[in-house]
């Protein structure tokens, strides 16, 4: 594949996530959190497996598009989990989900390091199966396992209650009671009074999606919805703009440090980056599937750097609040983005990329947590997903900005990322406070 082909492949997943984020929120609010999660996880797993054995480029693109569409619904998990947990512990438990993301960031390159360097080839006619195909299959397993586990779990009790399904809500509470007490005996709830059964109109999917969206942005929560969407757009634009750029920066710094052994008196990172020739005179048609060992190691280091923030936030969120950690994460990552302009070595690049990943990723995760806290049950799924949709738009824009300016004006991505993160941090201060004292 050429660089253009690789860009389309990466963009296909982003485009799938962009379209899926919006739709899964409506499905979660109309059909149920568990229902939406099972469907999206199965879709992600199945199309990932199909893509792993794809022998035709357009088929691979389509599968990555559909896989992205499916995995974008994973944000519904915040609503699903949050509606099972007592308000006293909700923020802490939702923040612990960042640790699972961090574990995945660390585990993924470890698995890749074991699988991708293998040299086996399975050929049968036009069919070819190599190590990267096996790696993609392995990456599909978590989604399928999660779908299986969700089949064995109940629907969200708050969603069932909001829909007036009292009997199903009691069955869900019995499940939780049995889980906690190892028995159904002495179950204390015999009936539910509020709310009354909701009479929903039978709308087509598109009409229902439209009315659900309009309902959110015309409700008393419209200001919060607008602010959270702007923050998601700014933070996610900055995150993907730089995180997809860091491996390229590492590669260019490695080229510079091996090509020029003596000091070159470079004043900033952009001068070093601009020296790299991105377009070779002759295109090598041979598929170069060798990956430098340092790539795996650097990604693992970046993942390990996220562990401190993933541990600190859940331990102190009840004392300091979500807003405090959001402001710190966005302003801190904005500062680290600005400092990129002054780096002159691959080591400095690795340190700053680790700081940026640790702070910006926890900030984006906390935005889902605060959305669960700020929106009521009937709007929660849609609000979380619309925010995610704006984030995916930002991810696409981040890719475009980097592609256009990385060689000649690399200061532009740095300024955009830094500015967006600082603005996001300031906008967080306009959101209402969360916590037990604000819940009636």
Indicate the percent of residues in helices. Answer: over 70%
Described by strand count, sense and barrel closure, the largest sheet is: 2 strands, antiparallel
Low-pLDDT stretches = 436-440
Helix-strand sequence? HHHHHEEHHHHHHHHHHHHH
Assess the beta-strand content as a share of residues.
Answer: under 5%
- Say how many strands there are: 2
Tell me the overall shape: globular
**In whole angstroms, how far apart are the ends?**
57 Å
- The largest beta-sheet arranges its strands as 1-2
Please, how many helices? 18
Subunit arrangement of the protein:
single chain
Radius of gyration, whole Å: 23 Å
Protein name: Major facilitator superfamily (MFS) profile domain-containing protein
InterPro entries: MFS (IPR011701), MFS_dom (IPR020846), MFS_sugar_transport-like (IPR005828), MFS_trans_sf (IPR036259)
Organism: Aphis gossypii
Subcellular location: Membrane
